[in-house]
Design a protein that fits this description.
Chain A is mainly beta. Chain A has one helix at about 60-65; strands at about 1-10, 25-30, 40-45, 55-60, 75-80, 85-90. Chain A has a domain at about 45-90: OB fold (Dihydrolipoamide Acetyltransferase, E2P), CATH 2.40.50.220. Chain A is elongated, with a radius of gyration of 14 Å. Chains in contact: A-B, A-D, B-C, C-E, D-E. Strand 1 of chain B pairs antiparallel with strand 6 (about 85-90) of chain C.
């Protein structure tokens, strides 16, 4: 799973019906200090009640559909956990 | 999902029969300001009536096939929403 | 789908039996002008009769297997269309 | 599989129920000398009893779910082996 | 498929049972001249009898599992062919 930070929300009126009611958030990958790294923002569906500013775990691809509970949902990124603590060996 | 901008159309006469009738658009990933970022243009099938210049949400891989409603369709990117608003915390 | 150019052929005598008879071509991703971009050549199976020098649409991953008509074929990239025209808004 | 090094642990109280009881570790890709390379840390589920500092083999995507023994588990990276020896031809 | 070169072997005593007996080789992506390119070494299972120094075709992701003949095998890269000849138009 990617370590990301939630930085915003996105609204889309014209969309695939299967996206109706999904909470879509803008996220960005971070390092273990919470700093932005190379790579662009993307949009993930939230299933754990994450808010802007929180650090989260993201799954991508077909795994996101599994997390959302339906193999036919047209979503390829999902927030599956809110990070409490990252304990990292900084000597690496 | 990736945040992209629609920048054009593509035509292909010789193609897999399963692509017949699909609306294929050229898209490029953007940041949350709508600016082009590193990475190349690619082609996505549109299912929401997007037009050139609009900002859209794109799903990739097997999820694109799900969005298109058929697991055997030879398409690996699909436009699943037209972005109305991106509300992003610019302090990150 | 990626926008690529066909630049060659590859031969492999010792290979998975399921690759027997497949036409494998060397391709490289290009921009919308047909110029080579960052990234390496790779090999894709052709199902539309593409030739060296042509611009093509490529699908990757599990979608390539779908394009080849069999979920067990050990191929993860396929040429699914030959590009006639790319009409791109150059102001982006 | 990616060659990675385990560098830490991650805790998340609010998470998808299916993640309950999974051992989640922070890993980073390395070269064959064990040195950190370009690319960010990510989180993988451990199924072989790996510890911080060990070099491991990681599978990604749908393969991680297979490694975890259930196609519906919302995890897209798994540690499937602890590397004893890497024997590499350094002349390449 | 990626064009890679086999550069070594890897041994792991503690590993997922399903990896038992698989021949795991260290590979690196190359250009069409056989030169190393940007990107790191990774590990692929060999099903065609490849040796160190040979140029090979690699499939990734779920396609590697298909190549290995079992959808539940925790391997996400497989060597599916040994390259005899690459015939590339160098004018691109």
């Amino acid at each position: 799973m990617m370590i990301c930070k939630v930085i915003g929300n996105v609204w889309a009126t014209k969309k695939d019906d299967a996206l109706e009611g999904k909470k879509l958030m803008v996220v960005i990958q971070t390092d273990t200090y919470g700093e932005k790294v190379q790579g662009e923002c993307f949009v993930a569906a939230d299933i754990v009640g994450a808010g802007v500013g929180e650090r989260v775990l993201i799954v991508n691809g077909s795994t996101a559909r599994k997390a959302l509970g339906g193999d036919d949902i047209p979503i390829d990124a999902a927030i599956v956990g809110i990070i409490d603590t990252l304990e990292v060996d900084r000597t690496h």
